[in-house]
Structure formats: structure tokens, C-alpha cells
Write a structure and sequence with these properties.
GO terms for molecular function: asparagine synthase (glutamine-hydrolyzing) activity; ATP binding. The protein is of the alpha+beta class. The protein contains 22 helices and 17 strands. 52% of the residues are buried.
Length: 559
């Protein structure tokens, strides 16, 4: 991951302003510690902090077209850049960077090239010929991007809120799958898949089609010129990523460059479910496994840093971000700069345990659509920012654009949890990789019950967080929460505690409005809480709040 900061229409283009932009850009240096770049043109500035993954020697940014009239700063990876270069043979490329194609695609196709990109990205592009500019974000919002407005009429874009929150009067999270065009004066959606309309699909389930699409998604993400690995919790999703990467690594350029033994990484409290399951998967696959431990106190001590980096006060995001933040620091200390991770599967296939209570396939499918559309505010934000805090890039194969379109086009009747047919959550994925002749994983791992990351690192982690919050927040503080925090009022002492930390770093109203709210059980949307009357008495984002479903569920609370 890299960090980008761009400002257009500054009334002050003095040396002092340039120094201020450099200062603000440094707030993103954790994302890109390898190089800093800045391009200025009259009242326009594009700053970049680089994490070098592809072409480390010559791919410094900003990047340009042949005559440097087009300038682009990119955060992300374009996996099909070699295929796109074949369409741009009349153009001269300066580097081997995968992101350079964006400048030339704009030159060739204007603003209508975004859907040609296969990857995760957010970028800002300046056309110096007429001082027009565009900004765009990938289909799902895997990479973060914010947009702000200054009192002087300037428009700002930044990978993280912290680089623009002081200087912008208002700022928002840039919508995934959208492009901003200065020529057209606003945002428009460039990503319009069939599932986005929430029309119920009817394509029959084909396990081989699904398997091949996922294998392709994993292999294309092995595009790297630096050491890498896989985050392995021992659950279904990360285990499948590791299994597929391990199976095909030797045949890739990355395997030839860095060796065919895959590195895997896991974090947890000693004795946690994830550590045990991950070790078993790693032994089965024969990976070079790295197991990291942390204590509840170490996690609590990191909370302020985590909230500063992840830029949220959402309870489940902070619970899961903290162990990922701690693990990323250990991973970076080993010299690893890129990891594959399993985010996105639960949203696409209805893997959260509350999906057991979906009343019909229509509501099941509509909930998956809602969950995917909100990923940029939750799991994508958490996975990206908690790893980028230490200069590590997380890639997510389940959120491959082609794979999502195939998976979301399956008749949701096949995704429904049907105990009478022995179909547990995410059965369509499990079944697709259930190969007796050439197994990917042991059966009991392939059919392990869903465990949310913040639960799987050790149940005492969440219990410890709640105990700590209870010691910091009094009953009267929580009782008056609606007066202190009228927007997204915290309903628990844990939520109140996180909110106080967030407000210290990001005190503006615009900052708190970037964080979603509403009731949730086991990571559900507010709409899905209606599926079970008992859930409204047990609102908690932990998977153990899925009463009657999770094997270690909380006890039912009395009214």
C-alpha cells in the first residue's frame, strides 16, 4: 500500500504551502516508507508515499505519460497491467510499474477506462493541458480514499483522514466503484455489476467454475518483487487462500524469485482456537509457519495507536484490528512487505453465523449485497489500515472483481444454510474445494464453523476489552452518552471508551460521520437484526452473539 495526497485549486501556491503539503504527506509515510514524491503544477499538488512492491527500483511516483502532461499518483496494484500494455503499444513506458498504465490509458481512452483495470486501487490524475483532474476508487473499496473541501475552494484527496482533517472544513469517505471528474463536476458510478441492483440471480451453482475463478484470483495476486506470505487464521477463508497459493506458487515468477515454500502468519492469545487450527493447516500444507502471541494487556496498550491508524470507533473493527496491527509489526520485522488475506468471503457467501436465521433466499441475497457495499467501512478498512500502519500490503483474493461477479450470480438458494441437507454456512465454497482425489485441506478444517477474527484470536480478548472499558467508563458517563455524543451514540461502555479516543485524534463532526452506526448482532446489518427477536436483547458484533448458532454462544439475557 502507498499513501496519496492531492490538492486542487489552492489559492496559496507559495513555498509555505508546498512545505505544508509535504508535512501533511508525512502523516502517510507509514503507508509508504520507501520513497516520497511531489509534483506541483500551478495551484495543483500530487504527493505520494511509496511502498515498493512491483518494480522497486524505477517505479517511484507520481508517474507520467511520455511528455509529462498527464500526472498520476496511485495507491494499489493493477494485476492485468501486462495485458493492458499490449493495448498501448504505441505508448512509451518509463518504468515497469503496474500503475503506469493508468496515465497512458487516460491518454488513450479519456475518463472511460476505469472498468478496464483489474486490481485494487485509488488514484488521482491531473491533466496539465487543461488542469482537469479525476479521482477513482476500486469496485469494493479495498484501498481507502477520502475527499475533502477547503474554505478556499480547494478539493482534497487522501488515502487517510489524518492528512486532510486539519485543513478541510468537510470531508467524506470516497465511495467505492466511483469516479470524480472535475470536468463533469461530481461523482458517478463506474462499477455497475448485475448484483448491485439486488435482483435475485438464478444461475445454477457450478463448483468447478467457482473453484477455478478463485484459484485464478489467488494466483494473479502473487505478482510481487518483494518477500510475501499469507495471513493464516486456520479458518476456512484464510486456509483456502493458503492452500491455493501453496499449490501454484512454484509455477509463478514470485515462486522462482523467492522460493516455493510459502510463508504463513498467525496471531493469537496463547491457547487460542486460531493458533491451533492455523498450525494444523500449516503442517498439512508444509508452509514455513510463523506464530505470534500477544497478551490482553499488550492489546489494550495498543488501542490508542490502533484507533489513530484505523480511523474508526466501530467496536468490531477495533476488536479485530488490534491483533492484526500487532501481527503486522512482527511480519514487517521479518522483511515481508505483502500478504494475502481472506477478507470478503463472509459477505459474498453469507458466512456470518446470523445468516442461519435468514428467512428466505431473497433476504439472504439482499443482505449479502448490503454487506459487500459496506465492506469499505469495515473489513476492507480494517485489513488495509492495520497492515499499512507498518508498511505491509494486504491483498484479498475473495474480492477479485471477476470472482465476485461469478459468486454473486449464483442462485442464493444454494448459499442458504440447510441443516436438513447438511449445508452449513459457506457450503458452496467448502463443497467447491472438497476434492477427495487431490485434497486442498483436511475435511474438519474445510468444514470448521465460522469464527470471527476477533473471537478466534482468543475469547478472553473480547472479554478483556469489555472489562477494561468497564473500569474506564462509569455508569453515569454511559447514561449521559446521548448528550456528549448525539451522533452514533455509543450504547456500551466499550463503544464509549473507543469513541473518547477517536474524538481526541479526530474531533471534527465530519470525522465522526465517516463511521457507520446502527444495531448489529454478530456483524449483521441493522436490517438483519429483525430476523430473530432474541437478538435485539443481545446486540454485540461478536459471533458468539448469534444465539442458538455459535457453539460457544453467549447466554441469553433476561429481559
Amino acid at each position: 500500500m502507498c499513501g496519496i495526497l492531492a490538492i486542487f485549486g489552492c489559492t496559496d501556491n507559495s513555498h509555505a504551502k508546498r512545505s505544508r503539503i509535504i508535512e501533511l504527506s508525512r502523516r502517510l509515510r507509514h503507508r509508504g516508507p520507501d520513497w516520497s514524491g511531489l509534483h506541483s503544477h500551478e495551484d495543483c499538488y500530487l504527493a505520494h508515499q511509496r511502498l515498493a512492491i512491483v518494480d522497486p527500483t524505477s517505479g517511484d511516483q507520481p508517474l507520467y505519460n511520455e511528455d509529462k502532461t498527464i500526472v498520476v499518483a496511485v495507491n494499489g496494484e493493477i494485476y492485468n497491467h501486462k495485458e493492458l500494455r499490449e493495448k498501448l503499444k504505441s505508448h512509451q513506458f518509463r518504468t515497469e510499474s503496474d500503475c503506469e498504465v493508468i496515465a497512458h490509458l487516460y491518454e488513450e481512452y479519456g475518463e472511460n477506462f476505469i472498468d478496464m483495470l483489474d486490481g485494487m486501487f485509488s488514484f488521482v490524475l491531473l491533466d496539465t493541458r487543461d488542469k482537469s483532474f479525476i479521482a477513482a476508487r476500486d469496485a469494493i473499496g479495498i484501498t481507502p480514499l477520502y475527499m475533502g473541501w477547503g474554505l478556499d475552494g480547494s478539493i482534497w484527496f487522501s488515502s487517510e483522514m489524518k492528512a486532510l482533517s486539519d485543513d478541510c472544513e468537510r470531508f467524506v469517505s470516497f465511495l467505492p466503484g466511483h469516479i470524480y471528474s472535475s470536468k463533469n463536476g461530481g461523482l458517478r458510478r463506474w462499477y455497475n455489476p448485475p448484483w448491485f441492483s439486488e435482483t435475485i440471480p438464478s444461475t445454477p451453482y457450478d463448483p468447478l467454475v467457482l473453484r477455478k475463478a478463485f484459484e485464478k484470483a489467488v494466483v494473479k495476486r502473487l505478482m510481487t518483487d518483494v518477500p510475501f506470505g499469507v495471513l493464516l487464521s486456520g479458518g476456512l477463508d484464510s486456509s483456502l487462500v493458503a492452500a491455493v497459493a501453496n499449490r501454484y506458487l512454484a509455477d509463478t515468477e514470485a515462486g522462482r524469485q523467492w522460493g516455493s515454500q510459502l510463508h504463513t502468519f498467525c496471531v493469537g492469545l496463547k491457547g487460542s482456537p486460531d493458533l491451533k487450527a492455523a498450525r494444523e493447516v500449516a503442517d498439512y500444507l508444509g508452509t514455513r509457519h510463523h506464530e505470534f502471541h500477544f497478551t490482553v494487556q499488550e492489546g489494550i496498550d495498543a488501542l490508542e495507536e490502533v484507533i489513530y491508524h484505523v480511523e474508526t470507533y466501530d467496536v468490531t473493527s477495533i476488536r479485530a484490528s488490534t491483533p492484526m496491527f500487532l501481527m503486522s509489526r512482527k511480519i514487517k520485522s521479518l522483511g515481508v512487505k505483502m500478504v494475502l488475506s481472506g477478507e470478503g468471503s463472509d459477505e459474498i457467501f453469507g458466512g456470518y453465523l446470523y445468516f442461519h436465521k435468514a428467512p428466505n433466499k431473497e433476504e439472504f441475497h439482499q443482505e449479502t449485497c448490503r454487506k459487500i457495499n459496506a465492506l469499505h467501512l469495515y473489513d476492507c478498512l480494517r485489513a488495509n489500515k492495520s497492515t499499512s500502519a507498518w508498511g505491509v500490503e494486504a491483498r484479498v483474493p475473495f474480492l477479485d472483481k471477476e470472482f465476485i461477479n461469478i459468486a454473486m450470480n449464483i442462485d442464493p438458494e444454494w448459499k442458504m444454510i440447510r441443516p436438513d441437507l447438511r449445508r452449513i454456512e459457506k457450503w458452496v465454497v467448502r463443497n467447491a474445494f472438497d476434492d477427495d482425489q487431490n485434497p486442498y485441506l483436511p475435511k474438519h478444517i474445510l468444514y470448521r464453523q465460522k469464527e470471527q477474527f476477533s473471537d478466534g484470536v482468543g475469547y478472553s480478548w473480547i472479554d478483556g476489552l469489555k472489562d477494561h472499558a468497564n473500569s474506564q467508563v462509569s455508569d453515569s458517563m454511559l447514561a449521559n452518552a446521548s448528550f456528549v455524543y448525539p451522533h452514533n451514540t455509543p450504547t456500551t461502555k466499550e463503544g464509549y471508551y473507543y469513541r473518547t479516543i477517536f474524538e481526541r485524534y479526530f474531533p471534527k463532526a465530519a470525522a465522526r460521520e465517516t463511521v457507520p452506526g446502527g444495531p448489529s448482532v454478530a456483524c449483521s446489518t441493522a436490517k438483519a437484526v429483525e430476523w430473530d427477536a432474541a437478538w435485539s436483547k443481545n446486540l454485540d458484533p461478536s459471533g458468539r452473539a448469534a444465539l442458538g448458532v455459535h457453539e460457544a454462544a453467549y447466554e441469553v439475557k433476561e429481559t
